[in-house]
Structures are given as structure tokens and as C-alpha cells.
Amino acid sequence: MLLYTCRRLLSAVLTVVLSAVLVFAAVQLLPGDVATQVLGQDATPEAVAALRDQMDLNRPAAVRFLDWIAGAARGDFGLSPVSGEPVAHTLWPHLRNTVLIAVSTIVVAVTASVVLGVLAGLYRDRWPDALISTLTLIGMSVPEFVMATLLVLLLSITVPVLPAVVLDEATAPVADLLPAVVLPTIALSVVMTAYIVRMTRTSIIDVMAGEFVTTARLKGISTVRLVVRHALPSALLPTLNVIAMNVAWLVGGVAVVENVFNYPGIGQLMLESVHNRDLPVLQAIAVISALVYVLCNLAADLGAMALNPRLRTGGGSKR
Amino acid sequence: MSEPNHGTPSTPSRTAAHTVSRTVRTLRRSRTACVGLGLVALHLAVAVLAPLLTSASPTANVPDEALLGPSGDHWLGTDALGRDVLTRVVYGGQYALTVSFAATTCAIALGTVLGCATALKGGRLDGLLMRVLDAVLAIPPILALLVVVTVLGAGPAVIVLAVTLVYTPQVVRVVRAAALGVAPLDYVTAARARGERTLSILLREVLPNIVHVVAVEFAMRASWVVLLISSLSFLGFGADPPTPDWGLMISENRTAMVVLPWATLAPIIALATLVVGLNLSADGLSRAWSVDRTEEAS
Q1: Helix intervals (H) in B138-206
Q2: Is B132's CB within 8 Å of A18's CB?
Q3: Is B140 within 8 Å of A256 when comparing Cβ atoms?
Q4: Lowest mean pLDDT among B62-71, B141-150, B208-217
Q5: Which H/E stretch holds residue B29?
């Protein structure tokens, strides 16, 4: 088990480093150089040369990568050529704001999807299942920016209870941002729930067909106790991975939804950087997202191992 | 899935006819797949026949008729530039469908080839490829797309390339898993023993037996691609402004949502029905062919 954990950790580190290489390569080695990209096509040669100098572009890419990754490991992502400030300064407040949305979305979506998934699984092929499946299908088929737009129409314009756009700066205190978190959270939760519900439903159905469930039923315990104590722990196992996968989607989904609400998070920063061609900021965001993704998958795998004794004995890496 | 009759050689035409008739039978059984494929076909037909369905131009500005409500002339009203909303919705599928179809096809083709090849070859190459693909998977699609668009500039070709890049790893995973299920079976071993080359084993033995997995993956992947591309248009990095495109229309008209709800709702409904169609197709097909979709839950 220790061996497996170590192997898993090592491969996680490797994956992060590899995605950092990919992002770096995509940004640095694609046609045209970064300095021209940042300044635009009609920059004077002197300006380009000066920026190349400032960004250290005259050194070999490999050396710059090592420098950059070493800095990134310490939380230093270099200077933004657009604002002239350290990337980290703009990054952290935005990241904090996004984490606010992401965490609340995960909490809401996971809770909702487990409850709905269990209901759908228990009432399989009856009306609650049909209703939940239909809602799930709609949730999966409506892009998150549409969900956000509809929510604005409903809860900001028709019944004005929540702000439609955020006017706060990225560095505003958390308390000021809280009302602004609600609508993005709902929009993202609906979509995320739709994806997780299906998995929960399937695994609940699988587990409820198991012999230990029949035994438990024969012992005469109540359905609630049966589901909570016996079925859920096993049913949540496959769901864990789906949740982890969804977090990767969430990072992208947040970007789009933040844009609808003008919420000062990573997504807004991302689009701003695309408009300003602020590549170092994009690089930093990409690496952080990759790190989040890998950590979530790692947590899901290790969590699955903790929940399922059978995975602890063998290599467990049957993928 | 491991039907023994594949070991005996049969003429290609008979196999093809057999496959077609079996597919038709499967589809008739699955109402979900029928409804889904019907919706998709409807969208395709509307997009192709758009010039016949409406005589108005989707891009011509008519300032005098801006921001009108629904009427006999304009069933769904007009937008801020006086363009007929219904006309733009009818034409709006063209961009999304073309780009999505091209991108999905590329991703599926590349992913299928890579997935089959890596499953058959195995060994160190397989390990290396899966590592690299894991690394690509770790970067959120929309971010990867934005980086590529920033560096290469926006345009349909770039978007197709970027989407292919972003979604190939997922396809490889799914196809590889399916191919690994087929690879140890007797008819593949027999082909190997006959001394056939990897390419011919891939095309003649493996691919025909995982084609249903690929088909389900295509439908499912297409729904993701449509969503991603419309998000990109919504953010202003996809279709260029005069182009009628649903994502773009939603972004253009949502500020006037209170006055003219239909200008926003119509493209939303069009987009959602297309994705519902694709999802239903994927659901129906996977159930009809009993394809395990847990691998592709995300």
C-alpha cells in the first residue's frame, strides 16, 4: 500500500511537471516569439528587443523553463510584461475569489447529486427517477453561461434579490463578495450536479442489487439506515473519481461563468490576459489548474483506496 | 461482444450489410436514440436548408427595424441592429455544426488511431503516451483553447485544431480501454499468429469490434464540443460578430434580455435542443449496444 501511494505520488508530480512543460512549450515555442505576441504585430524592433531583454528571451528555452518552474514552485511566477508587476500579486486575490466559488459549488453540487442520485436509484424507473433523469439531461445540455444568463433574468431582474454584476475589486474583503458568489455557485452547481447524479444513480443501483444489501434488508433495518450506513459508502467509491474529474471541468466552467457576472476571479483574469496577450499570467493559471486537477485525482484515488480495502492489497492500478 | 463468428472469414459486403441491418434493428428498439438522432438530423437539415427556409438575410442591418417585438414580419422580433432573430437562429447552426463536426471528427479519428495503436503495441510507448495524455488532461479545455487562440489567432481552423488537441486524450483513453478488451481475444491472437501486420490487425480485427464504442464516444464528444465552441463564441473568441452563431447571439442580446427575451431565448433553445439530441443519441446508443460509459463520465 505504501508502495502504491508512493508510486501514485510520483506519477502525480510527474504529470504536473509534464503539463507545465506542455504549457511552457505551447506558449514559448509556437510560431512568433513571445515579445512580438505581447506587443502585437506593429511593434518597433527596438521595443521588441527591449522586451526580449526584459523577459530574458535570449537565453535557451530549457534554461528559462527550469528557472520558471523553480520560481513557480516558490510561488513566484515572474513579472507580467503588461502591468510590470509580479504575476503573483494579481494572481493570488483572483485565485482566492475563485476558490470561494469553487468550494461552495463543490459542496452544493456533491450534496445535491448524492441526494438526487440516491433518490433516482431507489425509485428506479418510477416517476422520481424519470423526473431527475430529465432534469439531469437538461442540466447537461445547457451550457453554464446560459444557466448563468437565465439566473440573472430570474433572480436579478425579475425578482431582484441578488446582484447581476459584481463591481468589487479583486482584493475586496470576502464578506463583500459573498452575495456575488451565490448566482455563479447555483449556475455551476446545476451543471456539475447533472454530471455526478448519473454516476451516483448507477452505482446505487449496482450496490442495492448486492447480496449484503439483501442480508441487511432481511435483518429488518430501515431503508434510510440501509442506504446511509450500508449502501452509500460502497456507492460513493466510483463517484469519487467523477467528482475529481468534474473539478477539472469546474476550473474551465468558472472562467465562463465569472465572465457573465464580471466576478473578479481567475476566469476574468484569464480572459483579461488573453486580451492583453499577458502570457506569463496565462502560464501561471494553466499550471495552477493542472496542479488542482492532479491533486483532486490523487485525493480521489487515495480516498478510494481508503474506502475500499481490496485496492490496498494489489497494485490497484488496473487502468 | 466476443462473438465467435468473427473468426470465420466472411465477404466484406455481407458483413457490411449485416452490420447495417443490425444497427437499424438496434435503433428501432431504442426510442431514446431515435429521438436524439432525430433532433440532430433536424438541426442538420435546418442548417443546410437555411437559405430555403427564410428569405431574409441573417447579417443585413436594418436600423429602422431595430429591437422590435415578435410580429407577423418578424416572428421572434429583431435584435439591436434590426436583424431578424428567427433568421439568425436558423442560420446560427451552420457555424457551430460545421466547426463542431470537423473538430469532433478529427479528435475521434486521431484518438481512435492512437488508442488502438497504443493498446496493441503496449509496453513503454504505451506508458509514455498515457503519461503525456494525462498531462494534457490536467489543463482545463477552455484554458488550453484560449492559450492556443491567443498564440495562433482566432479562426475556424485554429479552433478545430485546438479542440482536437484538447479532446484527443479523452478519446484515446476510452478507445484504448475498449481495444484492450479486444486485444487478448482469440481472433486477434490468431491474426498475430498468421503474421499479420499491426495496421491490418487494427483495421480488420480490432476496429470492427469496437466501432460501437467509437460511435457512442462520437455522439458524446460532439455534445461537449458544441458546448465548448459555443462558450468560446460567447466569450468572443469563436465566431466573428456578423456571423450568425448561437453563442454569439446569446452574448450580444443578453443585455436586452428584459425587453426582448426571445432574442436570447431562441438561440438558447436551439443550442440546448442540439445538445440534448446529441446526449440522447449517446445515451440511447450506449444502452442499445451496452457500452460501458463509466470511463467517460467527464
Answers
A1: 141-152, 156-182, 186-193, 198-201
A2: yes
A3: no
A4: B62-71
A5: helix B12-29
Looking at residue B62, its pLDDT comes to 67
- Interface touch A26/B151, C-beta < 8 Å: yes
Instruction: Give the Cα separation of A137 and A7 in Å (integer).
Output: 38
Considering only CB atoms, A252 lies closest to which of B141, B150, B251, namely B141
Inter-residue contact A95 to A263 (CB < 8 Å): no
Chunked mean pLDDT (size 10), chain A, 319 residues? 80 84 74 62 72 68 75 74 75 85 88 87 84 85 84 76 70 72 86 85 83 84 81 79 79 81 84 79 84 84 76 50
- Residue B287's nearest CA partner among B35, B15, B17 is B35
3-state secondary structure of B96: helix
Please name the member of A238, A241, A259 whose beta carbon is closest to the beta carbon of B235: A259
pLDDT of B106 > 90? The answer is yes
pLDDT of residue B212: 82
Residue B26 grid coordinates: 438496434
CB B136 within 8 A of CB B165: yes
- List, for residues B60-97, the tens digit of each pLDDT value: 666 666 666 666 666 666 766 667 777 787 888 888 88
What is d(CA B272, CA B68) in angstroms, rounded to the nearest whole number? 24
CA dist A152 and A162 (Å) reads 8
Distance (Å) from the C-alpha of residue A221 to the closest C-alpha of chain B? 31
pTM, entire model: 0.81
Which residues of chain A neighbour B146 with C-beta distances below 8 Å? 270-271, 274, 282
Instruction: Specify the pLDDT at position B7.
Output: 40
Task: Tell me whether residues B148 and A270 touch, CB distance under 8 A.
Answer: no
